[in-house]
Amino acid sequence: MPTETVYGLAGSAVDPLAVAAIFAAKGRPQFNPLISHVADLAAAEKIAVFSDVARRLAVAFWPGPLTLVLPSHAQSPVCDLARAGLDTVAVRVPNHPVALALTQAFDGPIVAPSANRSGRPSPTTLNHAQEETGDKAAMALDGGPCRIGLESTVVSLLDRPRLLRPGAVTRQEIEALIGPLAEAETDAKRSPGRMARHYAPNAPVRLEADAPRPGEAYLAFGPYAAGPGVWNLSPTSDLAQAAANLFGYLRAADLTGPIAIAVAPIPREGLGEAIADRLMRSAGYVG
Length: 287
Ligand code: AMP
Ligand code: MG
Hints:
Layout: E1 11-12, H1 16-26, E2 35-37, H2 41-44, H3 52-61, E3 66-71, E4 88-92, H4 97-106, E5 110-111, H5 126-133, E6 153-156, E7 162-165, H6 171-178, E8 182-183, E9 205-206, E10 216-220, E11 230-232, H7 239-255, E12 260-263, H8 272-282
Parallel strand pairs: 2-4, 3-6, 7-8, 9-12, 10-11, 10-12
Antiparallel strand pairs: 1-5, 2-5, 3-4, 6-7
This protein binds adenosine monophosphate and magnesium ion.
Magnesium ion binds at residues 113-114, 122, 193.
């Protein structure tokens, strides 16, 4: 299933067999909680308990790449496996015509973790999704290349608002609405995207590289001479363009079999926080 963030491996959030098949297809080492995708706020309120702050965020950013972690609704049909047995649930409304049409037609929450095998870069085109898990999917919907190319921002609203995963909606946009976000508590089991060496190509990744060394592929950012082995995330230093190109270029560079993939320094403000997060993990720096 295409979304505005990345391609997802979709199944019913209500059906434990479907959810188990998704974990198996991804080869996830453990059962992590998944995001339930729904058509609108009304559908979200059937699976989660919304506070005023939660509702304000939903109204401001949905449909869109913001995932809210909330107390599970007592009558929620989302299966235990999709919530990894927690009494909380992650929910969002995707902003993509195909994903929205699917959530409306299906009329129930849909889990859709990124369609890559566990630990690999997320797929941002149907082709990449097919390469990763296509043989495991019953059907594939082509929605073209993902507009954003980075996963959703995950905010937990259980005690005070916490940023669990930086993503396509920036910290600044959220804080402008609800004030300062606390940091995530380190609990790698709850957050697959927070494990060391996630989003990783086969080649090692070298960060903050002003230029490639011999044998390295290079992901440039900003003005840089084009040439073999060079992919420019954004010649005009545009962070949104870099985000959209990131996973695809990691994949393309990896296919050339370099001794490493060197990546140019990228500013960390705005979307740059999420880009830096994914790059640090693809390099295996974050535990
Ligand atoms: P994915 O569906 O693979 O994009 O990942 C879902 C993200 O949401 C991961 O970072 C999960 O750890 C996080 N998540 C989902 N459900 C919960 C939950 N109930 N509590 C905390 N984090 C969650
Ligand atoms: Mg993922």
